[in-house]
């Protein structure tokens, strides 16, 4: 079974989007370099960021996201982001009627059932959990092995929190990696068990 990683870009004050669900400057680092990160050539990062992010992206087998993110993105029009094989959507509602019936998206009710499905699909590859409410619930339930965050040099002041509505203390180990890219600080923390 692969590692479970909670991940997102985040502001210095801990937000993954503003109150209107817009990331604002949090993704500027994805356009701040000259090394293409994907086949589109649109996303370009510094060499340092590429060396850190590309192996991670390549190791992801499944991403878990909440229904809110799915609805905001229209499920990336049926194509999982960043070349990922499958997306598991935590939702009480199933696949929208008529929405890309062949898309590798799985609609699962409940975080434990969603994680079980994601791990089955991922095998020994990484299960990525989108930060926010679903990620915070999975962290609180002890389902996350590692927290990765790309900290952008921005203060949003309010909005959607990286850890969602988690209201209990959870300890992380010392950072396993701290890497400075262009307009971004990459951090990786193992979750303390």
UniProtKB/TrEMBL annotation:
GO terms for biological process: riboflavin biosynthetic process. InterPro entries: DHFR-like_dom_sf, RibDG_C. GO terms for molecular function: 5-amino-6-(5-phosphoribosylamino)uracil reductase activity. Residues 111-170 form the Bacterial bifunctional deaminase-reductase C-terminal domain. It comes from the Bacteria. Pfam families: RibD_C. Gene3D superfamilies: Dihydrofolate Reductase, subunit A. Transmembrane segments: none annotated. Coiled coil: none annotated. This is Dihydrofolate reductase. It comes from Glycomyces sambucus. The lineage of its organism: Bacteria, Bacillati, Actinomycetota, Actinomycetes, Glycomycetales.
């Amino acid at each position: 079974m692969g590692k479970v990683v909670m991940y997102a870009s985040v502001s210095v004050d801990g937000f993954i989007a503003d109150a209107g669900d817009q990331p604002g400057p949090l993704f500027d680092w994805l356009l701040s370099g000259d090394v293409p990160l994907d086949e589109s050539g649109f996303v370009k990062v510094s060499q340092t960021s590429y060396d850190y992010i590309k192996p991670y992206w390549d190791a992801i087998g499944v991403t878990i996201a909440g229904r809110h993110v799915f609805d905001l993105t229209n499920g990336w029009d049926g194509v999982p982001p960043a070349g990922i094989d499958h997306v598991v959507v935590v939702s009480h509602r199933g696949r929208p009627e008529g929405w890309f019936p062949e898309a590798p998206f799985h609609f699962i009710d409940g975080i434990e059932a969603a994680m079980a499905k994601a791990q089955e699909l991922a095998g020994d590859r990484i299960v990525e959990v989108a930060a926010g409410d679903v990620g915070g619930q999975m962290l609180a339930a002890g389902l996350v092995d590692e927290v990765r965050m790309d900290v952008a040099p921005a203060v949003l002041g309010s909005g959607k929190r990286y850890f969602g509505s988690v209201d209990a203390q959870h300890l992380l180990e010392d950072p396993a990696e701290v890497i400075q890219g262009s307009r971004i600080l990459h951090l990786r923390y193992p979750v303390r068990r």
